[in-house]
Amino acid sequence: MVRCIERSCQSQILALSAGTPIEIPDDLAQSGYDQQGHELAGWFQFQTWWEELMRDEPEFLE
User: Fold this and answer.
1) 24-43 per-position pLDDT tens digit
2) Cα separation values, 28 from 18, 23, 33, 35, Å
3) Distance between CA atoms of 53 and 57, rounded to whole angstroms?
4) Structural element, H or E, at residue 45
5) CB of 54 within 8 A of CB of 60?
6) What is d(CA 41, CA 26) in angstroms, rounded to the nearest whole number?
7) What Cα–Cα distance (Å) separates residue 38 from each residue in 44, 48, 51?
8) I need a labelling partner for 17 at 20 to 30 A (CA). Which of 11, 23, 47, 62 fits?
9) CA separation (Å) from 13 to 8, 16, 17, 20, 49?
């Protein structure tokens, strides 16, 4: 769990240090979504991370 919190904090710090957010036009966002190929693409990508977390930090679920 500590690893998740640390990575979340790192992501937040990087996002805040990147400057002013850029709004992505709807058509470009839709194009990115369409390129994933399937609505479950994000779920499948998550599985690798989840398996690594369960292998390295099984106490995460406690």
Assistant:
1) 999 998 998 888 777 787 78
2) 20, 10, 9, 11
3) 5
4) helix 41-56
5) yes
6) 20
7) 10, 17, 21
8) 47
9) 9, 5, 6, 13, 21
